[in-house]
Design a protein that fits this description.
2 domains; Site-specific DNA-cytosine methylase; alpha+beta
């Protein structure tokens, strides 16, 4: 039986014709494409509506609330501490702040000290100590701090010095809220200008560096409260007595004023308990408390000191 070769040829020919036509179509499409380098992209502009007067007022109010948040936190924490409003749930203020707010002891003291500095700055500007209102920050007639770090370098200065440093820092910042760097630079210049051989202050907490001084044997690492400032030495109260120590044997702990006051209280409590007639184990415990390198006692240390205070009164 004869094969029909003509059909196969037609089929092949049709397939070839379709393929050629498709290739030509593709080439034609490619040739009609625009060069990407010269292509024009049309972007539709989206109009951003301006803030209404009410929205502008709301934004300004909310910005000022953020700016004075650290101040209000410091004032609130100080009142919680002074009125002991934590006493129904916590034994110490430090424990309360740590569990309630997640704040460390030092952070709490920074906030409280910063709020006191802001009060002093306001007094220097207005002549009276008033609650901060909406003028705080960069948007009002007063230029006041907007963060705790801006005023941290001021905490160790006298109120009048705090006001002067802040005024100079604002001037250097071009009439705006100065960053912490500028405030720190101004403080450093004032400290260098008024520098004296002995920079320690009464009430400051410092560490004893015994080195090779036989008179300070056993006192290395102890902390003490400066009671008198001489030209080249300080009279320092330690856990077991009062000593005159040369400046080369002292190192400042750089505590905040509030922390120094707390350490003063602890030092007085230990001193009232201590006597030469105590057992050696008790003396050793008091000495350990006299070497803590933090401005507070832990809950266990507080309990131990309470027991010794009770025993000393019996």
């Amino acid at each position: 039986m004869a094969k029909p070769p003509s059909r196969r040829k037609k089929s092949t020919s049709a397939a070839f014709t379709d393929s050629t036509s498709a290739a030509n179509s593709v080439n034609e499409d490619i040739s009609q494409q625009v060069d990407p380098a010269t292509a024009t992209i049309t972007v539709t502009a989206i109009e951003v509506p301006e803030l209404t007067e009410e929205e502008q007022r709301d934004r300004l109010h909310l910005e000022r609330r953020v700016e004075r948040a650290f101040f209000e936190a410091g004032k609130a924490l100080a009142e919680l501490r002074d009125r002991r409003l934590y006493r129904s749930t916590h034994k110490t203020f430090e424990e309360y702040c740590r569990s309630r707010f997640g704040y460390t002891h030092r952070h709490v003291n920074y906030l409280i000290a910063a709020s006191n500095v802001v009060d002093n700055i306001i007094m220097g500007t207005n002549g009276s100590q008033n609650e901060i209102s909406d003028e705080m920050g960069t948007n009002g007639s007063q230029i006041l701090p907007t963060s705790e770090r801006q005023v941290r370098p001021l905490t160790k200065l006298e109120p009048s010095q705090q006001q002067e440093v802040w005024r100079q820092a604002v001037e250097q910042a071009g009439g705006k809220v100065p960053p912490a760097r500028i405030v720190k630079d101004v403080v450093q210049r004032i400290m260098e200008r008024t520098k004296v051989p002995n920079t320690y202050q009464i009430g400051e907490v410092c560490q004893i560096l015994a080195k090779d001084n036989p008179e300070l044997r056993g006192k290395g690492g102890c902390w003490g409260i400066v009671k008198h400032v001489g030209e080249f030495s300080c009279t320092v109260k330690l856990w077991d007595g009062v000593y005159t120590v040369g400046l080369q044997h002292l190192k400042s702990y750089d505590y905040l004023p509030a922390e120094c006051q707390q350490m003063q209280v602890i030092c007085d409590r230990i001193s009232r308990v201590y006597s030469d007639s105590l057992e050696e184990t008790v003396k050793s415990l008091l000495q350990l408390l006299g070497k803590v390198n933090r401005p507070y006692l832990t809950a266990v240390e507080e309990k131990l000191l309470n027991v010794l205070e009770i025993e000393s009164r019996l």
